[in-house]
Amino acid sequence: MKPVIALVGRPNVGKSTLFNRLTKTRDAIVADFAGLTRDRHYGHGRQGKLEYIVIDTGGFEPDAGSGIYREMARQTQQAVAEADVVLFVVDARAGLSAQDHEIANYLRRLGKPCVLAGNKAEGMQGSAQLAEFYELGLGEVFPVSAAHGQGVRGLVEHALQPLPVLEEDDAAEPGQEVIRLAVAGRPNVGKSTLINAWLGEERLVAFDLPGTTRDAITVPLERGGRKFELIDTAGLRRKGRVFEAIEKFSVVKTLQAIESAHVVLLLLDATQGVTDQDAHIAGYILESGRAVVVAINKWDAVDSYQRQELERSIETRLSFLKFASMHYISAQKRQGLAPLWTALVQAYKAANCKMPTPLLTRVLLEAVQFQSPKRAGSFRPKLRYAHQGGMNPPIIVVHGNSLEHVTDAYKRFLEGRFRKEFDLVGTPLRIEMKTSANPYADKGTG
C-alpha cells in the first residue's frame, strides 16, 4: 500500500502550495468528499517509481477552544493519525512562533515520524535564521521553496526513507489465484452488515491475518471453491470468535484498499440515492482502472417510486460505470447475495481476459467495415490491426494511420464491439491509438 504523508502547520506557511507541488504529476484531489471539512484534501504524488498519498490540512491550532478552529484541529489530528509520516511546515522567513511550539509539542507527544520543512527559504541555504527552528526539538530543518520546487525532492526522499517498502503480492499459481476484493462506500450504507453476512454464511472460511503498519486488515474467504481476500475498509476487528465491523470512514484506507484490490464492490444506499460522495468514490475506482460491481443495498426498504428515482439517478450520476453490473440487495435479510458473488468473479475474469491478436484484429476490421471513422479534412483514419497492451484493466492498442483524428465517439463504438465479443462486463476498457510512422516523410521529392 502507498505510504501516507500529512502536511501540518499553522495558517499561511505554504502547505497547499507544497501539496500542489507534491501532486503535480497527477492532478488527483480525490477526496473533497461531502461530510469531511473542506480544509482536508487528499492527493497522489509520485517520485520516480515511488508513489504516495498526500493529505493537505488547514491551519492547525492543537488547543483550539471551539467553533471552526476546533473542527479544523480535529480534522488535522485525524490526518496525522492516518499518516505514516508528518511534514511539519514552518515559515522560514517569518521565523519561529508560539503556535509552532504548540504544534511541535503535540507532534512530539504522538511519537510519529516527523520531518521539519522550512518553507519560503529561497536563497536561505545555510542561513542562521533557520537555526532557531532547532528549538522545536524535531531535528534537522530542511529548507525548501514549495513555490519554486527547491529542495522538495530531497525532503520527500528523507521523509519516506525510513518507511518499510510494501511489495506487491507475488502472482498466484495457476488455479490458485486469490481474488482481492474491496468493499467501498459511504458510512452507514451497510458495509458492516454485508461483511458480517458474508462471514456468517455456510461453507465460508474466515480468519484474521496480521495487518500492516497502518492496521489494515485482510480476511481470506473461501466460497464455492474460489478463494477471496477481503480488504477491510470498514474497520473490521475480531473479538474472540465473533467478528465485529465498526462503521468508520477513512479516506486513506478506502483509497489504499481500492488500489490494492482486483475487484471493488461499490455499495450504495437505496434510501439515500446517489450522493456526491458516491460519485467521487466511483470516479476514483474508474481512475484506478479497477474492475467494479455496483450493489444497491436496503432495496427492500424503498417503495416503487423511490426505486424508479434511484434508477434514474444512477443512470445520470454514474453513467461512466455503465460497464458495471448492478445488483439490488438487502444485506440485513441476505437477499441477492449469491448473484453478487457470481458478478464479482465475472468482473475479475473480464479484467484479466486474454485477447488474441488475430481475434482482436478481426473484430476491429469488422467494426470498420460496419462503420468507418469520420474523415478529418483530407484524411480518413486507417485502422489496420489491434493487439492487447495490458490486463487489469484490459488495454487494446490499435495501429494504423492518422489515428489522431479518431473521435471519442468512434472509440466508444469500438469499445462496445470489443466488450460484446469478449464479454467484458465489470471492467474498464482502455483503447489506445498508435499511428504508424510514414516511411516517406523525410524523403525528398526529387
Describe the structure.
By secondary structure, the chain is of the alpha/beta class. Residues 25-39, 166-175 and 210-215 have low confidence and may be disordered. 30% of the residues lie in helices and 23% in strands. The protein starts with a strand and ends in an 11-residue tail after the last strand. Keywords: GTP-binding, Nucleotide-binding, Repeat, Ribosome biogenesis.
Summarize the topology.
Layout lengths: L3 E5 L6 H8 L18 E7 L2 E7 L10 H16 L2 E7 L6 H13 L3 E6 L21 E3 L8 H9 L17 E7 L6 H9 L5 E2 L11 E6 L2 E6 L4 E4 L2 E4 L5 H10 L2 E7 L6 H13 L2 E7 L6 H14 L8 E3 L8 H15 L5 H14 L11 E9 L4 E7 L6 H15 L7 E6 L11
Parallel strand pairs: 1-3, 1-4, 4-5, 5-6, 7-10, 7-13, 13-14, 14-15, 17-18
Antiparallel strand pairs: 2-3, 8-9, 9-10, 11-12, 16-17
Pfam family, one: MMR_HSR1
Function: GTPase that plays an essential role in the late steps of ribosome biogenesis.
Subunit structure: Associates with the 50S ribosomal subunit.
CATH architecture of the largest domain: 3-Layer(aba) Sandwich
Counted up, domains total 3
Largest beta sheet: what is the strand line-up?
Answer: 8-9-10-7-13-14-15
Mean pLDDT, to the nearest integer, reads: 79
Number of helices: 11
CATH T-level topology of the largest domain: Rossmann fold
- Which percent bin holds the helix content? 25-40%
Oligomer: single chain
Determine the N-to-C terminus distance.
Answer: 60 Å
CATH class of the largest domain: Alpha Beta
Please tally the β strands and state the result: 18
Indicate the structural class: alpha/beta
Spans of at least 5 consecutive residues whose pLDDT stays below 50 are: 25-39, 166-175, 210-215
What overall form do the CA principal axes indicate?
globular
